[in-house]
Amino acid sequence: MSQLRHAVLGIDAGTTAVKATVLTTEGRELATTRTSVHVERPGPGWAEQSMHDVWHAVTDTVRRALDAAGEVEVVAVGVTGQGDGAWLLDENHEPAGPAVLWLDGRAADRVREWERDGRAAAIRRITGSTLFPGALPVLLEELEATRPELLANARHQANCKDWIRLRMTGVLATDASEASRTYVDTSTGAYSAELIDALGHRRFATLLPPIVPAGAHRPLTDAAAAALGLPAGIPVVTGLVDTAAGGVGLGVSTPGQAYAIIGTTAFLGTVHATAADVRTDVGITLSTGQDGEVLECLCPMSGTPNLDWVRDLLGRRSRSWDAIEAEARTVPPGAGGVLYLPYGAQAGERAPFTDPHASAGWLGLSTETTPAQLLRAVYEGLALSLRECQEALGVGGTLRLCGGAATSGLLCQILADFTGCTVERASAGELGARGVAAHALAAVSGIDVPTAAARLLGELDVFRPDPGVREVCDAQFATFVAVRDALRPRWPDLRALRTAGGGLSLSDNHKELA
């Protein structure tokens, strides 16, 4: 009888889907499966999930992945998942109520109150991140006021991946990256008594789980093993929050390295040796738990919806993305002088600047502007936004890339040309799951996490900047920033006109022009 292949399992519990990836310990992908998870909207701006539904999605996804992988022996497991929100548990480690997710907006008014009274500034100073409605501290206060029965039953806080690992091991713990946007001083990776006191939240301190290293592991229980179809006793590592896990999966783990994700939203992050190296005041700072290192991230709202929109707008919905790219490639860099501001999200923009009124638009049009120029301008607009993030973070050299839009060779080359970085695109998928699988592999193999991550990552496609177009790209970027900044004071007016929609009537001053 032949010996079973050894494999590691990575689980990524995202907001709308749970994914599971099985990889041999040599790095070959054997199977990837996914299960959708429903987000409940029981009130205006609310976003909740059943914790038990998430766990059932995990068991279903893992079982199907194991079936697809064939004859393997899983030797270790890693878990990542969506961050932030409030996943509150009772004294028996059962859900005190539904999980309140990171995208929940019920605490928006309280955020504005904290911005006025200085508590948001305290959070920024100590955690290195900006306050938003889905952050745990402001959610706890909001739930205490509006759902007192939930807080009365709560004894523990567990983020998404921590809840899953609790069900797998019976042990509740979190890691420094996950805890960074709660009450953590990211310069130390530990909870900050100063911040807890500044917020007046001493009463919530007992909810917080212990912080342990991402690679710390506990054995899979008999009950969880039976539910998942895995061997009992194998190690389950603590893991990382999804954005940090994606960086590990891409092989980005040392100071100065950077990576980008272009999906529904965009992301650009870089590793710093210490929190003192953080460069912006609108980003997210995550402690890595590694000798004071931090991950500084900027997360523009601009992403693939811009491309979906322009495809539909120009009547090309039935065409393949290869055909759309081919059309955009007929236009040289600079898009014939057409600029695109990629701020199409209803929520405005959040990085590298914050403006809820930000609006998208083309600039530099004429009656000779072609559809191909409009297409290329949108691709370039995404790259221009990320170049602005790149300059804010001080990133240069090489940029690792993943995400749905990374499948576009055109976008990868445009990003290389506009940033001046060599872009290395991961051909592998599910980088978050691979990142925590790397921690799992390190736990059982004796190799370090960067070596494990490189083994699991596989091949990279390389796109080098074309020095022949650098002057055009630099001019385009300078004009992009200048024109955008000139328009910003009028964005509230444009947003008001859009909100009013077709209900506006021409004023007397404009009727004569109609």
UniProtKB/TrEMBL annotation:
Protein keywords: Kinase, Transferase
Domain Carbohydrate kinase FGGY N-terminal, first and last residues per copy: 8-249
GO molecular function, one term: kinase activity
TM segment ranges: none
Pfam families the UniProt entry points to: FGGY_C (PF02782), FGGY_N (PF00370)
Record domain Carbohydrate kinase FGGY C-terminal: where: 258-443
Family: Belongs to the FGGY kinase family.
Descriptive protein name: Carbohydrate kinase
The organism's taxonomic lineage, starting at the top: Bacteria, Bacillati, Actinomycetota, Actinomycetes, Pseudonocardiales
